[in-house]
Design goal:
The chain is mostly beta strands. 7% of the residues lie in helices and 28% in strands. Strands 3-4-6-8 form a four-stranded parallel sheet, with no helix packed on it. Strands 1-2 form a two-stranded antiparallel sheet. Strand 1 (8-13) and strand 2 form a beta hairpin.
């Protein structure tokens, strides 16, 4: 996929890809790029796209923000890494499909 038309920067760290752009129009494509090769969505602080059921916390994050996934009815699994030190209030409030969390 040729992404040269995007004003974006991407970096790969272990199993995650982190992409950023200053152009809001690039967001849908960048969200698709944030899927790991094994089908997990890599969360790096952005809004999770609809219909994502498996989320892996990006290795750059040490805090899961308040209300980060609040009212997300689609997430079934969430995987953290050892660097996550804090989960803020209401981070998973009303995530009714969430069945498995790996800390």
């Amino acid at each position: 996929v040729n992404l040269s038309h995007l004003n974006a920067s991407c970096s790969f760290n272990h199993s995650s890809l982190r992409c950023t752009s200053h152009n809001p129009a690039d967001l849908p494509l960048l969200q698709l790029m944030m899927m790991a090769a094994d089908g997990w969505h890599i969360y790096n602080g952005e809004v999770i796209p609809l219909d994502v059921t498996r989320v892996r916390i990006d290795e750059s994050l040490t805090v899961i923000p308040a209300a980060a996934f609040q009212w997300n009815l689609d997430i079934e699994e969430l995987e953290c890494h050892f660097g996550v030190k804090t989960v803020k209030e209401l981070a998973f409030n009303n995530c009714t499909s969430l069945r498995r969390v790996i800390m």
